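User: Could you check the structure of this?
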Amino acid sequence: MMIHYKSLFILLAFLTISCSNNDIKVFQGQNTNLEKLNSSWVVINYWADWCAPCIKEIPELVNFANKNKDIKVYAFNYDQLEIDDLKPIIKKFGVEVPSLLTHPRDIWGIETPPILPATYFINDQGAIAASIYKPQTAESLQLILDELRSS
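Assistant: Sure, the predicted structure tokens are below.
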């Protein structure tokens, strides 16, 4: 059991060190690091341009982000497109929240979800507080956030 805790400690130390110098890449936003992200609630929304519910959800996500300036809301393209390919798609579909270029797996251990759209709520301690695998509205996102904050 002691070896397990040592391994976990080493992994956490590695993640903390590796994410400490603005090495989390963000498109349409400032690059950041884990320390800065852990200072507030974070919402990550996985989407793709071929996912009709994702496209319908994007304005809701933007509306939610605009009403919650105290949290960080990011999109993450499921197909992990390069910036040159991502830029016109973001413009076309109105993704007006910053987009993570660094995979959430490398930040919080979030694997690529089995279904889209997928939304993750990460608390101000850096722990995944909720994983939602269905389309959301600004109102449903707000209800989830409010419930998580109060628990």
